[in-house]
Design goal:
This protein is an alpha/beta fold. The protein has three domains: 60 residues, no CATH class; 199 residues, Rossmann fold; 93 residues, Helicase, Ruva Protein, domain 3, CATH 1.10.8. A five-stranded parallel beta sheet has the order 7-10-13-6-14. A three-stranded antiparallel beta sheet has the order 2-1-5. Strands 3-4 form a two-stranded antiparallel sheet.
Length: 403
């Protein structure tokens, strides 16, 4: 039996139920309460005697001074089930969204769409009016994920080399050296992308699809994961250029950021109505909950989510029907079907399933398709909505029963 001194030298290690942070308290605190230093949650310390805790109930005793790292769910031989009964992907998704909610309020579709695209190797186009916090969202996402963040303000005089980088002559070595541009990051905010001409847009095509940059015959790979979040203003047309269909098709989702509700906007005023520096807020209040390596591991894992043959046919019917729908003169490309399948797999993984269902496809169908179809002139004159027409189209297709 352990002596009193031995008990005092031991620590009870357990996890915060809110933020999943590993907490360590003295064994004498068992049965009491402790405050999580990360999220401020008051949590119950396990009551069992330290000598009985080893290997029981997910709680363990560690010796004072011992360094303990959180378990890595991606290591071989470690269960992907977390302590809440869900999968590792579920746990990471919940922790990411909880951290984002500390500073970014509302816009659930935007948050979910960006995360699905990130874990599916896709990109996101956001259409919204100014002032809805798009820059804050991407900065927060970079901090939470542990990824580098970069921003490009697109203007009419922006050149392709301003994005990709260019060779610069080094006077010391008497040679040209490549100086990387702002695209060499992991989370790239392309702000007001439709304010630049076509030659600048073309510079992003290879970057978004191939994750690499080719300059003077030399190829430079980008660090993964790599996510482009582009924005455009739907109410301004002066000084803007329509994105070419080839580039629109490179975006996995087109998301619409809407005005917050009355309650959400009041909360925004309370949280951000002071004179606090946002950079300081992100540094002090936002915690990193995952790593780029873990993101890549889960992205590979999402590719193993099962998609039934009936669901494949369902996706195929949706995409192909857009090409013959009377109100569309341009339908979706095969890349739309690939995005639907990849997104459905990732969404199923976030929901804790190893198989996709029709609801996963329906949930992301509008963001995947709305920028890949073009209305006929008659439909535009009649003021018909792309989203409503796509909803009507999807309703005409029989939903398969997946067993």
């Amino acid at each position: 039996m352990s002596t009193s001194n031995e008990t005092d030298e031991s620590l009870v290690k357990f996890r915060c139920g809110k933020c999943d942070k590993v907490l360590k308290v003295k064994a004498e605190s068992r049965g009491g309460k402790a405050k999580c230093p990360s999220c401020g949650e008051i949590v119950q310390v396990p009551e069992a005697h330290p000598s009985d805790l080893k290997g029981a109930g997910g709680v363990e005793v560690i010796e004072a001074g011992q360094v303990v790292s959180p378990p890595d769910p991606m290591n071989k031989g470690v269960s992907l089930k977390n302590e809440e009964g869900g999968t590792a992907a579920q746990g990471i998704y919940r922790r990411i969204t909880k951290e984002i909610e500390k500073v970014f309020i509302g816009q659930d579709e935007l948050v979910q769409g960006a995360l699905v695209a990130l874990f599916s190797n896709g990109h996101v186009l956001i259409e919204s009016v100014p002032g809805l916090g798009k820059t804050l969202f991407v900065r927060t996402l970079g901090k939470v994920l542990g990824c580098d963040f970069g921003r490009i303000q697109f203007t009419a005089d922006l050149m392709p080399s301003d994005i990709t980088g260019a060779p610069v002559f080094n006077m010391k070595s008497q040679e040209f050296e490549f100086r990387p541009g702002p695209v060499f990051t992991q989370l790239l905010l392309a702000d007001e992308i439709n304010r630049s001409p076509a030659k600048t847009h073309a510079a992003l095509l290879e970057i978004m699809q191939e994750r690499r940059v080719t300059i003077d015959g030399n190829t430079y790979s980008l660090e993964l994961p790599f996510l482009v979040v582009a924005t455009q203003n739907p109410i301004e047309s002066e000084g803007t250029y329509n994105l070419p269909e080839a580039q629109l098709d490179r975006f996995m989702f087109k998301l619409s950021a809407k005005y917050p509700t009355e309650k959400q906007e009041a909360e925004i005023l309370v949280r951000h109505g002071g004179q606090e520096d946002l950079t300081l807020q992100l540094a002090e209040n936002i915690n990193q909950v995952t790593t780029p390596e873990e993101i890549l591991s889960l992205t590979a894992e999402s590719g193993t989510v099962r998609v039934d043959e009936l669901l494949v046919n369902y996706i195929n019917k949706i995409v192909r029907l857009t090409r013959t729908w009377p109100q569309f003169y341009l339908g979706a490309s095969p890349r739309a079907g690939i995005s639907l399948m990849q997104g459905a797999r990732t969404l199923a993984m976030f929901h804790g399933r190893d198989y996709a269902v029709p609801d996963d496809v329906i949930e992301i169908a509008l963001p995947v398709l709305r920028h890949r179809v073009q209305l006929t002139a008659e439909a535009e004159v009649e003021g018909q909505s792309v989203d409503q027409l796509l909803t009507d189209l999807i309703r005409t297709i029989e939903v398969p029963r997946i067993k």
